[in-house]
Amino acid sequence: MNNTKEYLQRFEDTVNIYLQDLEAYNMEQLLLKPQEDKWSLGQMYLHLIQSAQYMTFRNIEACRVMDATPEIAEVKSDAGAAVFEKGGFPPISIQVPASKEYTPLQPESKEQLIEGLNEVIQTMREIEPLLDSIPTNRTRPHPRFGALNAKEWFCMIEMHYRHHFLQKKRLEEFLEIKI
User: Fold this and answer.
1) What is the mean pLDDT of each run of 10 residues along the chain (179 residues)?
2) What are residue 76's DSSP bridge partners?
3) CA distances from 127 to 31, 145, 159 (A)
4) Is 126 helix (H, G, I), strand (E, B) or coil?
5) ∠ at Cα 172 (168, 176), nearest 5°?
6) Cβ atoms of 63 and 150 closer than 8 Å
């Protein structure tokens, strides 16, 4: 995890797969849900974009501007330690109850998704050179993984995007899309 340049390259490779595959989908396929309580392919894409923009990047920035070590030492959870030891999330489906705050809306267009993915890549490129200057004792809590420092938040984006390949595959099978 020390080599954030390597994570950035892997992230760009992962996003390029999402972008390339996006070309094969039409809007109807992007909006179709396998069940009412499941996400569409378009919602999954928006989730990836929005989780980076509104959760991960904000936590990296919070670590960067933090004044000092928190009074109460936060620790990484066992699940968080396992994810970073293995370099990825376990190959399981994680279901979070639908909510206004968490469930993405349907995308407005393919262009919205393309632009969003490209914006995330651009922000990752801007953040990566700053990471070595952020002390590793500055952490922000992740709801499942516990205390993560800026480099861990950064690397988690790539792991998160890679993890969603499982959901993407299930949705493509549902839509009978051959990629």
Assistant:
1) 86 97 95 93 97 96 81 80 90 71 89 98 98 93 93 96 95 84
2) 146
3) 32, 21, 17
4) helix
5) 175
6) yes
Q: How distant is the alpha carbon of residue 41 from its chain centre?
A: 15
Can you give the pTM of this predicted structure?
0.91
Assess contact for 171 and 44: CB atoms under 8 A: yes
Residues 6 or more apart whose CB falls under 8 angstroms from that of 56 comprise 153, 154, 156, 157, 160
Domains and CATH numbers, the chain: 4-175 (1.20.120.450)
Q: How many helices (DSSP H) and strands (DSSP E) are in the chain?
A: 8, 2
For helices 165-175 and 150-163, give the axis angle rounded to 10 degrees: 20
For residues 127 and 107, give the distance between their C-alpha atoms in angstroms, rounded to a whole number.
Answer: 26
Tokens of 43: 């919602």
The helix, strand and coil proportions of the chain, stated in percent and rounded to the nearest 5, come to 60, 5, 35
| Residues sharing a CB contact under 8 Å with residue 136, sequence separation 6 or more, in sequence order | 149, 150, 151
